[in-house]
Every structure is written in C-alpha cells, then in structure tokens.
Design a protein that fits this description.
Helices cover about 45% and strands about 15% of the residues. It is built from 19 helices and 15 strands. Helix 7 links the parallel strand 7 (about 135-140) and strand 8 (about 170). Helix 6 packs parallel to helix 7, helix 10 (about 220-255) crosses helix 12 and helix 14 packs across helix 15 (about 355-365).
C-alpha cells in the first residue's frame, strides 16, 4: 500500500504499531546518518541505511561502529537480525522502498577551500531515480543559502520527473555541525524545520517530532532557515575566537583567563565562556564566506574569527614546544602523551579535527606522540594512531602530557604517581583548563595552559 506523506496526520504516527508501517531511508551512514537511523528505529520505524562505502555498512552489520556507543551499535546489529534495519549501497533501491528519505550526506570542502556539493548532487540524483509519489525527503545536513532550492529540489525534480509539493514533499531540517554532539544532544537540541509549502512542512514536522525530544521551530521560508543555521554557527565561532584572543593576551600578561571569565560570567556569558581545545573547522562559516564572495560582500568579522580559530592548533603546538624547552628538552624525539581526543567530554564521540591536526604537527616536528582516551578503543582508530590501552601506558617515560579533552578521568590525575612514571623533568600542558597550575608546579612539573598565564617556570 502506497502511503502519501503529504497528507499525514499526527494520529497516523502516534504508536509504534502505526510507525512500523513506514520505512525511513537514511542516505549517508556516518555519524549524522547513524543517529537518525537509531532515533527512527527506536520509535518503531523500519529503516534502510544507505552508504557508498561497504566498509561503513560492514561495521554496522558487525555492531562495531567507530566512535558510536557500543550499546547503540549492538542494538542496530540486532535490528538487522529482526528485519527492521536493512543495509545497501544502492540509493535508488532504498529510495523506492522508503516513505521518508533523510539525506545526511554533507557538502565537502575541496583542496582550495571551496564548497563541493558533488556527492550531495549525485545522491539526490539517485534518490530521484527511485523516488515514489507521496514520499517525503528531508535534508538534514547544512547547506549554503539557496542551495536547498537551486540544488536539492532541482536535482530531485529533474531525476524523478515529479513535482515538489505536489508529487513529493521536501523539507530542510539541519543538524548543526555534528562535531562534539552526542546522540542525546541531537535528540534534545532545538530543531528547525522548513519547507516550500504547508503540506511538506506539516509532514516533516510530524516526523521530526516523533523521533526527537526537542522544540521544533517551523518556517515556510527555506532561505531564512538556511541563513539562521549559518548565522548561529558563525556567532558561536566569533565568540570562541574572541575568547581565544583574550586567552592569548592573558598568557602574555601573566593573568589566568579562567579567573577573568568567572568574574565576568554573569555580565558577558557568551564571550567569557571557558576556552577549550575545540575544533576550528565549521562548514557553516565556509558557506557564509563563499556566499558573501558571490554576493560581492566583504565580510570582516567572520573572516577574522575563521583565521583566529584556525590558529589555535599552532598555538597549542607552541605551548608544548615552550614547555619542553623549559624542561631543557626539544620537541624532536620527545615522547608526548596525548590525553583525550574525543570531541565531547565523558562520551564516545568522533575525534576532534584539531587533535588530529596537532598530532600531525608534532609528528612533523619529530616528536613521538601517543594517545590515551578512556572512551576510544583500538577498533575506533587507524592502526598507526599509537593508541595506548591505559593511562599508565601512555605516561610511561613521557616528556610531556597534553590534555586535549577534559574527561573527568583526567581531572583526577594523581600528580605524585605521574612524577614517578614520566621522565622528569617533565611538562603538563592543559588545553582544557581542568587542573590547577599551582598544583602542577608544586609537584615539580613545568606547566602551560591555554589562557592561563600564571605559570612561574
């Protein structure tokens, strides 16, 4: 029986039994796709997971999905056995079997720093070839202003021969930059739903409200939704860049930035939040800069924020180099213990791009970095990542320990034991602001910290 999603009512999806009559096709099975598949399965929908990479699908079938909680990975494996989850590399087939299609394939950035929609376009073409009348397509990845209409809508209509808003529905409901977001954050975070006409907006809103536990903001102006997503991301990045500028100033002025932030938090909460070693990459910012260039607009503040945030990895490398120098050691051949690489604290999430870049810089400088993260297993990373199984393993003989993710495990570091394990004189570089400089120096370590210019050695 063909179900027309454009005429769906809330009562059509108000029980698991009713939702079992609908199939959700998730196009792209990286983290964003996995999360949407899992949320849909949890509410009783049948799901098709589509990805061009067979390795990704094999990992799902084995219940071993990198940087996804083991519980979720194993339950998805069980869903395959029960027949509620199907895996395929054939987008056209999945689209033809699905009532609701969620496109999670992201736009990419090419070697020249330009937005590349090629993979998104190809997926939309394949979806269109299998698209049925009455289906609903939801774009869940952020795009530039106007891209939903000029790219997604156009490709779907051209390849399907169907008319958007008449034969099928189309909505835009992006999840903001995924880095650092857990499943719980996505499920409970605020969500925008936009469409070109009321039927698609109504259908998409009913579905999204079924799988998440968050407030839904609706609009019939898709360009406004695209702009809102981009503006919010840029505003956050500008605040982060300003905080990082203040932090560098504090290092030179001999001030603890965290003390300044505490003093002014009530008055200036956004600009004076704690400085963390977070990712510098934000595709929404690149959307904005490229769109601005196309509109012949010279934007200053977003570009400056982009440059400032992009420099944080090199600044971290300089702090490490300076700490080693104070130990009368060089970066070359120094054994460096990297503590934490996940994007979120106390959770199994994807690694920070900034962490990967910092490790690359250290390797290029001749250092010998190794990694320990209590939320990361050998199955999650590449063979050459030099991941250690325990804190003792990574610290043994290390010249410097660098905290990249502020897990609670690292807040409770036993400095006296570390002094015995590490190769003294040794340094501790805290890029997350979770340990006190005075305590570190008291135990005989050299201390450096992002924004914490109170070290004395």
């Amino acid at each position: 029986m063909s179900l027309n999603l454009l005429h769906i009512r809330p009562e059509d999806l108000d029980t698991n039994e009713k939702r079992a009559n609908y199939t959700v096709g998730v196009i792209g099975c990286r983290h964003l796709g996995i999360f949407h598949a899992w949320l849909s399965l949890g509410k009783g929908f049948k799901v098709y997971c589509v990805d061009a990479d067979r390795t990704v699908l094999n990992n799902i079938s084995k219940g071993k999905i990198p940087f996804i909680q083991n519980e979720i990975a194993l339950k998805m494996k069980n869903c395959i056995k029960s027949g509620t989850l199907n895996l395929t590399t054939d987008t056209k087939v999945a689209a033809s079997q699905s009532n609701i299609i969620i496109i999670t394939v992201p736009a990419e950035v090419d070697d020249k720093g330009k937005i590349d929609y090629l993979k998104v376009e190809n997926m939309c073409k394949q979806v269109g070839l299998g698209l049925r009348r009455g289906s609903l397509v939801i774009l869940a990845s952020p795009v530039g202003v106007g891209a939903t209409q000029s790219l997604i809508k156009e490709r779907l209509e051209n390849s399907s021969g169907l008319k958007c808003g008449v034969d099928f529905g189309l909505a835009y409901s992006p999840v903001k930059s995924l880095d650092g977001q857990t499943l719980e954050a996505i499920e409970k975070g605020e969500r925008i739903v936009a469409a070109f006409e009321k039927d698609s907006l109504n259908a998409a809103s009913i579905f999204i409200e079924n799988i998440v536990k968050c407030a839904i903001k609706k609009t019939l102006n898709v360009k406004v939704a695209e702009a809102a997503t981009i503006f919010e991301a840029i505003q956050n990045n500008v605040c982060t860049a300003l905080a990082r500028e203040f932090a560098v100033f504090c290092e030179k002025a001999g001030i603890d930035y965290m003390e300044v932030a505490k003093l002014l938090k009530r008055e200036l909460n956004t600009a004076f939040s704690a400085v963390h070693f977070d990712d510098t990459y934000c595709i929404e910012q690149i959307f904005f800069l490229e769109d601005s260039e196309n509109f012949n607009i010279k934007t200053r503040i977003p570009k400056a924020a982009y440059d400032v945030n992009g420099a944080v990895v090199k600044h971290a490398a300089n702090l490490i180099r300076d700490a080693l120098k104070s130990c009368s050691k060089t970066t070359r051949r120094a054994k460096i213990a990297i503590l934490g690489i996940t994007s979120s604290r106390n959770a199994k999430t994807a690694p920070k791009n900034a962490a990967t870049e910092l490790i690359r810089i250290l390797n290029s400088a001749g250092a010998r970095p190794s990694v320990y993260d209590p939320y990361v297993t050998v199955e999650d990373v590449h063979e050459n990542s030099n991941l250690k199984k325990s804190l003792v393993d990574v610290l043994e003989g290390a010249d410097c320990a660098v905290i990249l993710t502020g897990h609670d495990d690292f807040r409770r570091l036993n400095l006296k034991e570390m002094k015995v394990i590490m190769k003294m004189p040794a340094a501790i570089v805290d890029l997350e602001g979770i340990i006190e400089p005075f305590d570190v120096e008291k135990e005989g370590f050299i201390y450096r910290g992002l924004g914490r210019g109170v070290w004395t050695k």
